[in-house]
């Protein structure tokens, strides 16, 4: 059992590092020119923030118990962990509903969904999540367990109060978080894939039979591929944990073998908070292009900028003015030169220069 717990700890910490890095890169790419003005960018940004919060809070909970067995913030971490997990799941569910509506009525959906409305929806969804789990302030408390000599406190844990209906609440929380959202995502993804397949078949038919082609939005294609892939990954990673939780609630079979399965499904449950970055890379060509452009802009240019400055030859700029005509400056770009002579011939100032690389003679 200790070995399985260590695997779980290492896996969640690695997922936290990878997931937070990927979500931060996704946030940067979403604010580039291609994705910035779309309502879906607000949804994906909210999803990235919620996923980062879930991963960081889970890692804080694990690391805190390893180095500080006695803490006082366990209930706060537990509260915000459930809040951001519910927010992440319902954003994915709303993404599936929004893409499904776009497939059925692409002309009407822009009037219903805009960037401001999407931002307000994410804020309202966050407030609803806070209200749903607000009863934790009443039904949760910290318990401290002393050692065998009853002299020092060895560890602390956040638990429900004795008169709280824990089984009913666990079923209700699982229903709100997973049992209700997974069927919605599955149905929406099936409808979207079917409609996209029919649209691709119609487009191929029009390309073969006529000169005119079906003009489908490239940006919406890219966004639909990204969001549908994220929703499919969510269904694949969350379904095993949901099924196993329902099985344990019905059978009450809490054996060591079921405990191992529970840890494995819990690790898989955290995958959908960290793997959206990979899903976007493999499903969207424009996302890959923006990612490569980001690395070229902020990494390669910063690395080679100093070397480029050191290898560029320095130049001097000289100006010539005529005293008889209108004073019009003539700008000369020359390599590094040395001025050694100044003559005045017929009212024109001549600057004599000598190029140190020229072995044939002097240049005037």
TrEMBL record:
The keyword Transmembrane applies. It is a multi-pass membrane protein. It holds the Pfam family 7tm_1. It is found in: Membrane. This is G-protein coupled receptors family 1 profile domain-containing protein. Gene3D superfamilies: Rhodopsin 7-helix transmembrane proteins. GO terms for cellular component: plasma membrane. PANTHER family: G-PROTEIN COUPLED RECEPTOR, G-PROTEIN COUPLED RECEPTORS FAMILY 1 PROFILE DOMAIN-CONTAINING PROTEIN. The chain crosses the membrane at residues 6-30, 76-97, 118-138, 176-197, 223-247, 259-285. It comes from Rotaria sordida. It comes from the Eukaryota. One of its GO terms (molecular function) is G protein-coupled receptor activity. Signal peptide: none annotated. Its main location: membrane. Residues 22-280 form the G-protein coupled receptors family 1 profile domain. Keywords: G-protein coupled receptor, Membrane, Receptor, Transducer, Transmembrane, Transmembrane helix.
């Amino acid at each position: 059992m200790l070995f399985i717990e260590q695997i779980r700890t290492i896996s969640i910490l690695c997922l936290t590092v990878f997931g937070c890095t990927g979500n931060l890169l996704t946030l940067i790419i979403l604010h580039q020119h291609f994705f910035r003005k779309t309502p879906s960018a607000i949804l994906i940004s909210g999803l990235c923030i919620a996923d980062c919060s879930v991963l960081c809070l889970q890692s804080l909970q694990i690391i805190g118990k390893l180095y500080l067995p006695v803490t006082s913030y366990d209930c706060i971490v537990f509260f915000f962990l459930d809040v951001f997990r519910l927010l992440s799941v319902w954003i994915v569910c709303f993404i599936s509903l929004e893409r499904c509506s776009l497939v059925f009525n692409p002309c009407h959906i822009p009037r219903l969904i805009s960037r401001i409305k999407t931002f307000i929806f994410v804020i309202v969804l966050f407030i609803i999540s806070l209200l749903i789990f607000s009863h934790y302030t009443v039904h949760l408390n910290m318990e401290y367990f002393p050692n065998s000599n009853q002299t020092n406190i060895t560890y602390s844990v956040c638990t429900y109060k004795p008169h709280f209906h824990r089984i009913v609440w666990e079923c209700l929380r699982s229903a709100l978080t997973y049992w209700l959202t997974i069927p919605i995502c599955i149905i929406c993804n099936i409808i979207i894939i079917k409609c996209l397949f029919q649209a691709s078949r119609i487009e191929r038919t029009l390309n073969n039979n006529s000169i005119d082609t079906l003009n489908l939005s490239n940006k919406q294609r890219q966004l639909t591929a990204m969001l549908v892939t994220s929703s499919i990954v969510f269904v694949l990673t969350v379904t095993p944990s949901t099924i196993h939780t329902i099985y344990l609630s019905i059978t009450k079979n809490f054996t060591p073998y079921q405990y191992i399965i529970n840890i494995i499904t819990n690790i898989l449950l955290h995958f959908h908070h960290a793997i959206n970055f990979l899903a976007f890379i493999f499903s969207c060509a424009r996302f890959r292009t923006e990612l490569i452009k980001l690395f070229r802009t902020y990494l390669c240019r910063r690395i080679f900028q100093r070397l480029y400055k050191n290898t560029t030859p320095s130049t001097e700029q000289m100006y010539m003015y005529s005293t008889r005509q209108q004073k019009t400056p003539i700008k000369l770009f020359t390599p590094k030169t040395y001025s050694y002579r100044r003559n005045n011939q017929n009212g024109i100032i001549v600057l004599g220069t000598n190029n140190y690389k020229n072995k044939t003679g002097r240049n005037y």
